[in-house]
Write the structure tokens for this entry.
Amino acid sequence: MKDDPKSRKADLMEHLKVSILTLRFQPGTDLDEALLSYEFGLSRTPLREVFRQLGGEGYLDLRTNRSARVSEMSHTTLRDFFLAAPMIYGAVLRLAARNATLAQIEDLKTAQLAFKSALRSGSAADRALTNNRFHELTGEMSGNVYLLPSFNRLLIDHARIGMTFYRPQTAKMTENLTEASTQHDAIIAAIEANDEAAAAQLAEEHWNLSRDQIELFVMPDALDVPLGLSPLSKPA
Amino acid sequence: MKDDPKSRKADLMEHLKVSILTLRFQPGTDLDEALLSYEFGLSRTPLREVFRQLGGEGYLDLRTNRSARVSEMSHTTLRDFFLAAPMIYGAVLRLAARNATLAQIEDLKTAQLAFKSALRSGSAADRALTNNRFHELTGEMSGNVYLLPSFNRLLIDHARIGMTFYRPQTAKMTENLTEASTQHDAIIAAIEANDEAAAAQLAEEHWNLSRDQIELFVMPDALDVPLGLSPLSKPA
DNA sequence: TTATTTTTTACTGTATACAAGTTGTATTTT
DNA sequence: AAAATACAACTTGTATACAGTAAAAAATAA
């Protein structure tokens, strides 16, 4: 078990990511450089480099001469989220079905087992993180460097939004989680069969389910149209 | 004319971006921390922070214990590019038509004037940069934080690919540049009229033109299939 | 000579010290 | 008492020095 600065830096990055994804660090929270550098046995120099990187990935908002802040989630971002997510994820899953390697498919199956386990006996954070891992893997499968930046940005807020409904409080919500797991299985099958159309279709259904789940929670008014699908599938 | 470290840092960032976009720094080039910090009067600490940020934005590839390197453009990335670009840019222009403010439209018109001027009398770099600016503004207009990461990543390579054909060498290529400018005008009109469908349509045409222009150039073994259109739009 | 090991050199990564800027508090002025 | 100013405490940003690591050069063995 080595404990060199490099691994402490990786620890810090992982800790921050998980804390943000699970809402342990709420959106808008200020981060204390001095405290974190003390806790992780790092000087401020590498710490600030980590901040920069997490800023670029969308976890943090950086402002000059002000402390780094966990990126916000306003009502507009939620709207933007469901505008972009079906489109990006549809394309990602399409490409995943096209390009996935056998090894990647095995990893995805493992991740899905972890997700199911978290649904049975895990905490809300476990569910959000294992679900996040599942989707991250589909991103890797797509292997398109131009889609991944947006996709990974989406996953951050997907996990954070998810944290609100991975604590099911009604029968309907529990049912939705089971349905999500079933969809994951179908996604794996579609990828394994190289069935791009099925994968894209499942992507749409999966995000519609997410939207329904959230509407049971935070969304007062429903979204008009599933924007973003048409530009892809329907050549004008 | 202030010359504090903060502005030198901004200068450095701008210089690196422009150098990379215009191929002054070729893809794969190693960056010399010592030299750059000397040239910009900065110590390595802020310099490395800039590197991290540019890494996150897709300008640089960062590898531990190795020098930062201008991000590569392989044949696969070109393929991925034309797979993702029409979709992302279609969505961006759609949203731009929906959300653009009057002030933003004015900025876009100004940018288009600069682009036209560069077409008449500018260098290839001027053309790539003014075109890049035009597209950046459409990204701002869309105002969707989840689309912008991929969109801006696309614009980096769009500028770099463009550098190869903003130096027209045949009548056909000059004609294509004029056509691109005409499309820009049409894009402005569509945005101004809040015509989402027209904007999305123009996005597709604009990227098809880019693809044609590139095929006149860097693709020796002309692409088998007009990749990026059919695979995504034709459900398997 | 060629292959392998050792030593040197150069560069990347980190820590600490210092400078600049921001925020909150106390004092002064009206 | 309220507002404005000045001061103090704290935080962020930068520079320099040092430690760790990889590549290159030199030296040794086959």
Remarks:
- Residues 5-6, 9, 42-46, 49, 65-66 of chain B lie near DNA strand D (CB under 10 Å from a C1').
